[in-house]
Amino acid sequence: MPIVRDQWYVAAYADEVTRTFLARTICNEPIVFYRTQEGAPVALADRCVHRRFPLSESRLDGDKIVCGYHGFTYETDGSCSFVPGQDRIPRTARVASFPVVEQDSFIWVFIGDPALAEQREIPRAPWLNKDSGYITSCGMEPIRSRYSMLVDNLLDLSHETYLHAGYIGTPEVAQTPMTTRVDDDANIVYVSRHMDGAECPPFYARSTGIDGLIDRWQDIEYHAPCLYLLHSRVAPEGVKPNDDGTDPQGNHLEVTYAITPETDNSVFDFWAISRDFAKDDDEVTEFMRKNNHTVVMQDVDALNILEAVIDKEPEGFQELSIKIDEGGLAARKMLKRMSEAAGAA
Ligand code: FES
Ligand SMILES: [Fe+2]
User: Fold this and answer.
1) Sheet harboring 227-236: ordered strands across?
2) Where is the Rieske domain (predicted)?
């Protein structure tokens, strides 16, 4: 699956971008991230135009980057304001600058034609904001696999029953049919699975304090290509939200993943889990962080193995898809359409 260009991607958590350079490759583009003295995030191509020295290995002079090799000096828009040994600055002395936006505790970067950045809306994950009323545990894992495998993985949660048995998986997840809906105008795939009277996995029993069977809803909203949201509701069996939308007995987990290709064969897995229950309980926070990290690492290990398998396999292996793959297949189709549209632009 080709990387979809002309799109916004999560490059980092907001607190990773500081006055010290962060070098990160996003969609095959080596980029240096930093903040101006006023705190605005900046993203520039991480290669000096002179002899390619990485700007991330250079130094800041106020808001400018002074190349660590021969001193070419770059402004925050990528233009060059100084070259050594001559007054005339060559017209082509500039590095690409990428549109960046700080939103919902992420630094988003636009990959593709910068002129299109404003037309593309950045999807929201408001619960990640500190004042949202949610408590968030989060992290990021690099995976040595093509990004489409992480999309497949997240769009089909039936694997929870097997890969994550004992954590978030119970038999009902794989047994319960799901519904899939595609919004091609907004580039969103929705996948829902509502399990009524389900076994409560240990992960939720511990954190919600519910003892007995639960109604467990998983509503996925995949904003292709980068942002994946899983709205998860856990309530005692038979307890429904009120007609006005309030849901005092429901426990809500907003699970956010940002799926950011690093290269064609590697992906950054930004994960965050935000809850609106047991908010003052630090033990639950630590439990959530540890458990979710374990679950994420189970996926990371599986995808690393899969990429190695695909890498070595002879041409022509035919996958077999079944019902549970509906969401994943819809996402693949959408990504293909989007990458073709970007390629044609
Ligand atoms: S490589 Fe940057 S100034 Fe020469
Ligand atoms: Fe998983």
Assistant:
1) 135-143, 266-275, 251-263, 227-236, 214-223, 188-198, 179-183
2) 8-109
Task: Give yes or no for a contact between 221 and 188, defined as CB atoms under 8 angstroms apart.
Answer: yes
Average pLDDT over every residue of 83-109: 97
Does residue 344 surpass a pLDDT of 70?
no
pTM of structure: 0.94
Indicate whether residue 287 lines ligand 1 (CB < 6 A): no
The ligand 1 atom at the shortest distance from the C-alpha of residue 68 is 2
- Domains in the chain, start-ordered, CATH in brackets? 7-119 (2.102.10.10), 130-344 (3.90.380.10)
Helix residue ranges, H only, 132-190: 147-155, 160-163, 171-175
Chain segment 119-140, per-residue pLDDT in tens: 999 999 999 999 999 999 999 9
What does the pLDDT look like over 285-315, one tens digit per residue? 898 899 899 999 999 999 999 999 999 998 8
- φ, ψ of residue 225 in degrees (nearest 5): -95, -15
In this predicted model, what pLDDT tens digit does every residue of 329-340 receive, in sequence order? 999 999 999 999
> Is 74's C-beta closer than 6 angstroms to any atom of ligand 1?
no
- Closest C-alpha residue for ligand 1 atom 3: 70
Ligand 2 center–CA 186 separation, angstroms: 25
Contacts for 73-77 with beta carbons within 8 Å, 24 or more apart? 74/44, 76/36, 76/40, 76/42, 76/44
Q: Rounded to whole angstroms, how far apart are CA atoms 106 and 7?
A: 15
Q: What's the confidence (pLDDT) of residue 242?
A: 94
340 Cα to the center of ligand 1, angstroms: 36
Nearest residue to 55 (alpha-carbon basis) of 64, 63, 46 = 46
